[in-house]
Design goal:
seven-stranded mixed beta sheet, single chain
Length: 124
């Protein structure tokens, strides 16, 4: 059974940086496209970034483009999200997700497996 465990969240001031990690187990990581999503209180879960199986193709939401970068280390079964220039509106629970696919999927409904999430809070 595939398991995803996020880490690296916390409290940071506006303009600061955080690096999220997602540890993958229970399958062959390199078979899975991976994504990051976020959910703020009272809001729907939204797409943040996605990466294909090899790591060569990425997609980022317009709201984070130029500030966040998704990457992966297949040899370490780990997905990353580097977040720079953080804003208060980035405050949310961040979740990683995986799907057996060749594409960097943007649609939430495409994903098969989800982590529990890690809280990111950006103070102004």
């Amino acid at each position: 059974q595939v398991q995803l465990v996020e880490s690296g969240g916390g409290l940071v001031q506006a303009g600061g940086s955080l690096r999220l990690s997602c540890a993958f187990s229970g399958g062959t990581f390199s078979n899975y496209a991976m994504g990051w999503f976020r959910q703020a209180p009272g809001k729907e879960r939204e797409f943040v970034a996605a990466i294909n199986r090899s790591g060569r193709v990425t997609n980022h939401a317009d709201s984070v483009k130029g500030r966040f970068t998704i990457s992966r280390a297949n040899a370490e079964n780990t997905l990353y999200l580097q977040m720079n220039s953080l804003k208060p509106e980035d405050t949310a629970v961040y979740l990683c997700a995986g799907v057996v696919s060749s594409y960097a999927e943007r649609q939430l409904s495409q994903y098969q497996y989800w982590g529990q999430g890690t809280q990111v809070t950006v103070s102004s």
